[in-house]
Design a protein that fits this description.
Layout (H helix, E strand, L loop, with lengths): L1 H7 L4 E9 L2 E6 L3 E6 L3 E2 L8 E7 L2 E7 H5 L11 E5 L6 E4 L1 E9 L6 H5 L7 E7 L2 E6 L1 H8 L5 H16 L6 E9 L2 E6 L3 E6 L14 E7 L2 E7 H4 L13 E7 L2 E7 L1 E9 L3 E3 L2 H4 L8 E7 L4 E6 L7 H17 L8 E9 L2 E6 L3 E6 L14 E7 L2 E7 H4 L12 E6 L4 E6 L1 E9 L3 E2 L6 H6 E7 L4 E6 L7 H15 L1
Parallel strand pairs: 2-11, 6-8, 13-22, 16-18, 24-33, 27-29
Antiparallel strand pairs: 1-2, 1-9, 3-7, 4-5, 5-6, 7-8, 10-11, 12-13, 12-19, 14-17, 15-16, 17-18, 20-21, 21-22, 23-24, 23-30, 25-28, 26-27, 28-29, 31-32, 32-33
């Protein structure tokens, strides 16, 4: 291996960081190491290789967290008490999880053995050399070779092209005869706003800045992004009495009302619904002429064959004109000073949970969100991921259990599980997830590319939203890639059979 002798040289000194994995002592050249940190929290990537622990946040930068044990096939570590992550300096940022870090040592170049290192290589190892230490020989890892062997890197232009294709497919999911609405509960009744009026749905804050001498419906202000958001009670707006006590499930519907961004506090969020326009009826004139909460309702959607009535609110009728003027004063000032903000392209994502991990689906690919039906008809001789089929308003819909699909254990308490109905260019299916948390709005410039490690990973996860202040990472999934090619073929055959 003369090239290694040339790299290390015959004179001078070299510095190495030594560390342990499964009682073996390894080393990396100091110039290959950026820093050493504690093992960070990481968002697990579905169907990723065992060596990829997830995607972590390092001071605003997303980077893959890779297990050295996984790279070398050494099994899981018994304790993470001394574990550390070595952030590599060369190429794209990668954090390498090791059992423990020993020391930064200086080694004479002529003490670095290459031939002996080649002879003592164990299964899975890729080495550049070895040198003696007081606690045994330290093997110098060829870490880039290990990573290249374990992960097939994807070219960025291909990923961008696929992202454009996914966006084009998502745009095709819009239907002229369907209106997307966001529903929420107020005083035991279900209300909705058009999806286009809703920017996000976030948990109600623990602390609110009260407004002196304000009306009862004005709850105060909350911090939101880089501004203050006025909070108004939907109970007050709709003429209901305040709740006797909070149950901790209140949500803030962040909406654009008359050009003003406001937070509408609802008792709880319900669902995103694809409402058929022929089932949306205007409010009877006798009710719309009244001055109470009925006047704020624009239409009523008759869902589930009339068993589910959803009152659709009219945004421009929610507030009196003088209230809108007061709320809009500050917003107008912000708009005048930030002329470039309106030109930014934004996208909306439905965020759901599987375990502790959060995932996002483009809202335009989501038909609706509903509770998991009690009755799911099993289909014989199908893969375990296919939970069965349900009848959704006359259409037979295949249902996929995402936990089974991602090889996750069964959820013990499933009272918050939801069914997300997604549509791609060729398929429509229901996805069972642990819970749905919010509609998240993000500028396209804030969506980071997925770390390029494996083809399967970058096909499924086509972007990352790094909410550093909240300590959250949301992995954006491509709906068209949620199923493998074989599974898509199975659904094609199933759909053909259902039509016959």
């Amino acid at each position: 291996m003369p090239e290694q002798v040339e790299i290390f040289g015959s004179t001078g000194q070299r510095r190495f960081l030594t560390f342990r994995m499964a009682k073996r002592l390894y080393a990396l050249a100091a110039e290959e190491v950026s820093e050493v940190i504690r093992i960070p929290a990481a968002a697990r990537v579905p169907q990723a290789p065992d060596a990829l622990l997830g995607i972590a946040n390092l001071r605003g930068t997303v980077l893959p967290l890779v297990s050295l044990r996984g790279l070398l096939g050494a099994g899981e570590v018994e304790s993470l008490q001394n574990a550390r992550a070595i952030v590599l300096a060369n190429g794209a940022p990668v954090a390498l999880a090791v059992d423990s870090v020993e020391a930064l040592v200086t080694v004479e170049s002529d003490r670095i053995e290459t031939q002996q290192a080649e002879l003592s290589t164990e299964d899975g190892e890729r080495l550049k050399g070895a040198f003696p230490t007081g606690s045994g020989a330290a093997k110098i890892l060829d870490i880039q070779s290990l990573l290249e062997t374990a992960f097939a890197e994807r070219a960025k232009p291909q990923r961008q092209a696929r992202r454009g294709t996914a966006a084009a497919q998502a745009a095709e999911t819009q239907h002229a005869d369907i209106d997307m609405i966001v529903t929420f509960e107020v005083a035991g009744q279900e209300y909705a706003l058009a999806l286009g009026a809703v920017q996000e749905i976030v948990p109600a804050p623990e602390s609110v800045a009260k407004m002196p001498r304000a009306e009862a419906l004005v709850l105060g202000m909350m911090a939101f992004r880089d501004t203050l958001l006025p909070l108004l009670s939907l109970r007050g707006l709709l003429g209901f009495a305040p709740a006797e006590q909070s149950d901790g499930r209140e949500k803030v519907v962040v909406a654009h009302i008359g050009g003003t961004l406001v937070g509408l506090v609802a008792d709880r969020a319900r669902a995103i619904v694809a409402a058929e326009r022929d089932r949306i009826d205007p409010v009877p004139p006798m009710l719309s002429a009244r001055a109470g909460g009925e006047a704020k309702i624009n239409a009523v959607y008759r869902g589930e064959a009339g068993h589910r009535l959803i009152s659709i609110l009219a945004p421009d009728q929610l507030f009196r004109e003088d209230v809108m003027r007061r709320l809009g004063a500050q917003q107008q000032t912000v708009a005048q000073t930030g002329t470039g903000d309106a030109a930014r392209v934004e996208r909306k994502f439905l965020v759901f949970r599987l375990g502790k991990d959060e995932f996002g689906l483009p809202v335009e690919a989501v038909d609706e969100v509903a509770r998991v039906p009690e009755q799911i008809t099993r289909v014989p001789k199908t893969p375990k991921f296919l939970e069965g089929v349900v009848n959704l308003r006359g259409e037979v819909l295949p249902v996929v259990d995402q936990r089974k699909r991602f090889d996750m254990p069964k959820l013990e308490h499933g009272e918050n599980r939801r069914l997300i109905v997604v549509r791609t260019e060729r398929h429509r299916a229901g996805l069972i997830v642990d819970s749905v948390s919010e509609v998240l709005r993000s500028e396209t410039s804030a969506i980071e590319a997925t770390p390029s490690l494996t083809d399967d990973t970058t096909r499924l996860v086509h972007g990352v939203i790094n909410l550093e202040k909240d300590g959250r990472i949301v992995l954006l999934l491509d709906p068209a890639e949620l199923l493998t090619r074989a599974e898509r073929g199975l659904l094609d055959a199933f759909a053909a059979k259902a039509r016959s």
